[in-house]
Amino acid sequence: MPEEEEGAPCLLCLATASGLPLFCRPPRPQLPFSLVGALHGVHLFGAMEGAELRQAATPTAHVTWGTYGNSISLILLSPSPAPARILDSAFGAMVLVLGLDELVPVRNVERLKRDLRDRLQRFGGAAHTDLCCLCFGSGGFGGSVLGTPRWGALSGADSAPLRALMMTSSWGGGANGRGPAARDLPVFLPNSSPQVPHRLLLLRLLPGLLLALLCGPRPSLQLLLAQLLPQFWGPLLEQLRGCARPRPPPMPPEVLGYLLIHRGQTHSGISKGAGQGGSLPPHLRAAALRNLQKLLAPQYRPELGGRGSPPGLRLCYVSLPTHTGCCLLRPELLLLLLLPPGTPRDPLNPTAMRVLSALSCG
């Protein structure tokens, strides 16, 4: 701690996902950003290694960490040991002033849907139409469409082809694709107005989230992109990102830990509660994964000096007293798994496929 802070505790509030400081109390003097990042990084490193780091001591200060709702992290620096409940009290004070919905992700899906429908109506009014909808990909809200009342009143003969057009592969690979940011398509409504031309405006807010408007000559696409989208939807994009992103299936419960190297990127994780009878405690699993990588990976990965995968070889494993190690090979990836001891070989391949699916890389 800086000398001028000695004798006074310092409370930091950070955004968990980014580690960016939201506020500091007392506000002066501010801690260097590099120190804030280091404190947050130490906590993240401990979590990746399977350790729930709550307190630590340095020669000049005591540090206490707390994470709330996967969105807010609090860090307390004090000259003497401080109980962790101080952070709980600080978070409670934040909830008292701001409310829980301002601090953690919205969990009430039905309330969020109502809010989105209200915003759609106001957005449609500004865009001179009452036919608007949000189309979520296969993950968000179960792949549903949220629309204004008039959109919901469209007959099946009109709404079905509209939805098919919105989700077609010509729209940049569908709702989850990476197509153009916007399209302006001439359409007719087969049931209600088969002879009157309309414009179907498709705006990709996020991967997996389309905004659609059925309107006349107004508004122009330029007006929508330059003014109305930022005004009505810009503030909600981060909140909607989690709804639009397809949710992967859960990790198989028997997996103790994993290491995935996919197209040069590495992902790893430790499952705290998995396994049988504590045969391989969580704090030893990261080291076991590293040993498994040293043992198996170099034999089959050319970039690591190995001879490459023999034809047809996709999976190998090693059985140890404390765990079973599994190695799945593909041209573009390497997956290492830790499983309970005595796991038979037969279910290893489907288990590995389920892990890949859970990691959204299969």
Summarize the structure.
By secondary structure, the chain is α+β, with helices and mostly antiparallel strands. It is 31% helix and 27% strand. The longest helix has 19 residues, at 282-300.
Order of helices and strands: EEHEEEHHEEHHEEEHHEEHEEEH
C-alpha geometry: flat
The mean pLDDT is 76
The major sheet is characterized as: 5 strands, antiparallel
Low-confidence stretches: 1-5, 169-179
Oligomer: single chain
Number of helical stretches of at least 4 residues: 9
Rounded to the nearest angstrom, the distance between the terminal CA atoms is 46 Å
- Rg, please? 26 Å
Q: Say how many strands there are.
A: 15
Largest sheet strand order: 2-1-5-4-3
Strand content: 25-35%
Helical proportion?
25-40%
Task: Briefly note the structural class of the backbone.
Answer: alpha+beta
Descriptive notes:
The protein is an alpha+beta fold and 362 residues long. Helix content is 31%, strand content 27%. It contains nine helices and 15 strands. It has helices spanning 33-48, 85-98, 109-126, 149-152, 156-167, 221-232, 237-244, 282-300, 348-358; strands at residues 10-15, 21-25, 55-57, 62-68, 72-78, 132-136, 145-147, 182-189, 193-206, 209-215, 257-262, 265-270, 315-319, 324-330, 333-339. The strands form three sheets. The protein has a five-stranded antiparallel beta sheet, sandwiched between helices. A five-stranded antiparallel beta sheet has the order 7-6-10-9-8, sandwiched between helices. A five-stranded antiparallel beta sheet has the order 12-11-15-14-13, sandwiched between helices. The longest helix is centred in the C-terminal third of the chain and has 19 residues, at 282-300. The radius of gyration is 26 Å and the shape is flat. It starts with 9 loop residues before the first strand and ends with a helix. The model is unreliable at 1-5 and 169-179 (pLDDT under 50).
